[in-house]
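thread from #wetlab-drylab

HS: before we spend reagent money on co-crystallization trials with WTA, can we at least see a predicted complex? here's what I'd submit
DV: go for it
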Amino acid sequence: MSNNIESTLHETRKFAPPAEFTSLAHISSEEQYQQMWNRAKDDPAGFWGDLAKEHLHWFKPFDQAMVGTMPNTKWFVGGETNACYNCVDKHLSTWRKNKAAIIWEGEPGDTRVLTYQDLHREVCKFANVLIQLGVKTGDRVTLYMPMIPELTIAMLACARIGATHSIIFGGFSADAVADRNNDAQAKVVVTADGGWRRGKEVVLKKAVDASLAKSPSVQKVVVVRRTGGEVQMTPDRDYWWHELMDGASADCDAVPVDSEHPLFILYTSGSTGKPKGVLHTTAGYNLGTMMTTKWVFDLKDEDTYWCTADIGWITGHSYICYGPLANGASVVMFEGAPNWPDNGRFWEIIEKYKVSIFYTAPTAIRAFIKWGDEWPNKYDLSSLRLLGSVGEPINPEAWMWYHKVIGAERCPIVDTWWQTETGAIMISPLPGITSTKPGSCTRPLPGVVTEIVNEKGEPVPANNGGLLVIKQSWPSMLRTLYGDHKRYEEVYFGKLPGLYFAGDGARKDEDGFYWVMGRIDDVLNVSGHRLSTMEVESALVSHPLVAEAAVVGFPHDIKGEGICCFVIPKGEIPADEAKKELIAHVRKQIGALATPDQIRFTPALPKTRSGKIMRRLLRDIAAGRESAGDTSTLEDFSILAKLRDDEE
Ligand code: WTA
């Protein structure tokens, strides 16, 4: 397969960090990086053990920093800590107690600021609310909420009492919520009436109500009043957040938990239809996100830091909540969309709060480019000193625009490669020392040992495409897939024994810089969100009209990848209205984020003789590389497929 991974990108521009940035950076010389990287490679336990002792609070010190090898490594064994304590309580004995922890802005323009002390009080109260509702250490709590401070408060409250949170992005449907509740056997759901998105209410409580009919493990629901929209409260099951908080005590000790205690589950798409419950544990994740925030974003106490992700994704978990708060940062949090009330909203926020570190996604950058330079040019962006990118490969054109128009050619760009599974950033420039090349995520961070290998697990020569693997355990790696350890071992370690295989194709250039080319499996990357083609296919075939479906991605200007569905109907090719119905059906099954861009009815799908759908061919058609009228030519593909088959 690696023979098929061809790299066509040849980018030679290089951008050195400004000398002034280097002189003040946490990692400020190549020697320092080399020394850290080599130590971490040769002695991972010593390297991470020292950092853990220095940066985390230990109720009980650990006996051994690292035990075992991948896939079953344990970190900081025997130790007891608490992620909420490390993110909040730790700062209360310092001058940071009255520093802004969360600077929040709602889409309608309402604002709230919580200092570390405020955050501590709210978290303690909500932790008591959870206890009162019967949540115990080890129980699972689903959070299905808009981007409001209560979400961060609820996460930290779970961590405080050792409950495991499972956050479900607000764009998922009731059915998706039910599946995840069931898989995690969640006891409590925390939600809101709704949230604001482009001036409209995204209704959440109603979806929770529908999901609970199918997820009986849930006993209690807490509802934040956000929009004031109409909700139905079921007695003895549903409670208003503000009413419970009113009577709650602000006194709640953080529960010391084992280093390997489950901190959260986050469901993500794999190459099968069933979402994977990626499980992260306490100490390793806490440390990994903390150190990478400091190194990659060069975070200082003076910074105003803004990551535009939704907390429903790993980027929000790691770089809105756990990483920056553990460092005592001031974190901007925004509820809404970048184009509401107009296309200048993000730049207005940067100007208003004097944001200095800005972390966003290529899909957003491509939209900004389309909307025009006049929007950022209207605002004063001179507070910015560092820019970040995450979620998909950033095309050099978007990188250059980001560099020039947003960064004024002054701000280093950190293109950060990582995954839900890695917990923290793995490959990224270090802004004080790395000369960046547009489109490359550059080099692995200290403690991250990566390689590009072929199908046999052998390293390939420079500039050859191959599979991106991680060779050595790291503290913030996932520990298992919830309830299915066998699948964990198979998915990530089954292909190349002893190596963590990320699912991405990449190459390493002559300078050792990594260029990620994208997924090699059936996982789509739509606006930086992972979706499996199989999930969309199973949603489609669950509709009475559909006999069979094949889903592929195609290049999309803004989203990176769009969703194209080839559908064999049961019976005659239906009228165009049926397309709308199928699109609505997929949205209902999975959520708005999985909305198909194209539905193409076809009487047949191109298949090999063994019955495998020829996805490569479908991808060509979807991308318009092979001319195909909507349905007629598709009929010929069975013949085409047969011809190809005969050639083999
Ligand atoms: C892709 C998001 C290229 C990649 C943090 C990975 C990237 C998947 C980059 C994980 C990047 C993420 N350059 N590709 N800087 N960042 N990816 O789990 O395909 O939502 O495997 O985590 O996004 O997506 P996930």
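DV: Residues 268, 313-315, 390-393, 415-420, 441, 502-504, 516, 518-519, 525, 530 surround WTA (CB under 6 Å).
HS: ok that's useful, forwarding to the group
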